[in-house]
């Protein structure tokens, strides 16, 4: 399988400051925070408006963040990380796959988010390209995140699969994306619940020694002592 996880991403002042390696100057992070707030409020991120709010010209703003696409990628990734962090600390479901449950709740939060609803409705084809193509910067990170989660589930004994981890991560992400971007792909509305049913079938918990299915809460309790 082709390696999907090693493409170098464009270096910008915003990327360096988000990684904690840039200067202490707050301007690029201020642009990010304002853009993130606007997105969460369901507003379109407009670079001219953002530059005016910051009191800088557009050339400076573009130098800070790279492009509107790169800024949107950072905003969307920050929201994705926050959502996964929340879901991973939520109680596991009583039945079915813990990982599939985490992914389903994440997808439900995506399609319910005011900013994502506007983004998918008004810029659906652009959103599809930005979030699913490797060149956008988001795809590499979501694949890595899901691959790491799958590896953790396997190590904890909560998932037993014959599919190689990289292949499984790629498949899981593609399934999730197809249900989020249904409007741009098929004209239908996004459907996190249907994605969740498919993911439950793809990521079942391993059977117990007596052949019954291990519930995620039992597996989680055993793995955490």
Describe the secondary structure blueprint for this structure.
Blueprint: H1 13-18, H2 27-40, H3 47-54, H4 58-65, H5 68-88, H6 98-112, H7 114-122, H8 124-132, H9 138-155, H10 165-180, H11 182-185, H12 192-202, H13 216-223
Overall description:
The structure is a single chain. The protein is mainly α. The chain has 2 domains: 57 residues, no CATH class; 156 residues, Tetracycline Repressor, domain 2, CATH 1.10.357.10. Helix 5 crosses helix 6, helix 6 runs antiparallel to helix 12 and helix 10 packs antiparallel against helix 12. The chain is elongated and about 65 Å long.
Instruction: Give the CA-CA distance, first to last residue.
Output: 36 Å
Q: Spans with pLDDT under 50 lasting ≥5 residues?
A: 217-225
Biggest pleated-sheet summary: none
Rg from C-alpha positions?
Answer: 19 Å
Classify the helix fraction into a percent range: 55-70%
CATH level-two architecture of the largest domain: Orthogonal Bundle
CATH topology of the largest domain: Tetracycline Repressor, domain 2
| SSE order | HHHHHHHHHHHHH
Task: Give the class from helix and strand content and strand pairing.
Answer: mainly alpha
Can you give the mean pLDDT? Answer: 87
The level 1 CATH classification of the largest domain is Mainly Alpha
Portion in strands: under 5%
């Amino acid at each position: 399988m082709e390696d999907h996880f090693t493409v170098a991403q464009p270096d910008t002042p915003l990327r360096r400051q988000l990684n904690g390696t840039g200067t202490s100057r707050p301007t690029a992070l201020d642009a990010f925070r304002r853009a993130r707030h606007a997105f969460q409020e369901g507003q379109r991120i407009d670079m001219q408006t953002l530059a005016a709010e910051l009191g800088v010209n557009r050339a400076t703003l573009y130098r800070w963040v790279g492009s509107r696409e790169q800024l949107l990628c950072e905003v969307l990734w920050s929201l994705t990380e926050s959502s996964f962090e929340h879901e991973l600390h939520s109680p596991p479901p009583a039945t079915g796959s813990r990982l599939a449950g985490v992914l389903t709740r994440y997808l439900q939060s995506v399609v319910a988010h005011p900013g994502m609803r506007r983004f998918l409705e008004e810029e659906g084809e652009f959103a599809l390209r930005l979030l699913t193509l490797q060149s956008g910067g988001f795809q590499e990170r979501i694949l890595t995140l899901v691959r790491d989660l799958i590896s953790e589930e396997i190590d904890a004994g909560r998932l037993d699969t014959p599919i190689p981890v990289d292949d499984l991560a790629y498949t899981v992400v593609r399934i999730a994306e197809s249900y989020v971007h249904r409007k741009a792909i098929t004209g239908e509305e996004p459907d996190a619940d249907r994605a969740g049913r498919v993911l439950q079938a793809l990521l079942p918990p391993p059977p117990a020694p007596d052949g019954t299915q291990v519930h995620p809460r039992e597996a989680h309790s055993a793995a955490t002592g």
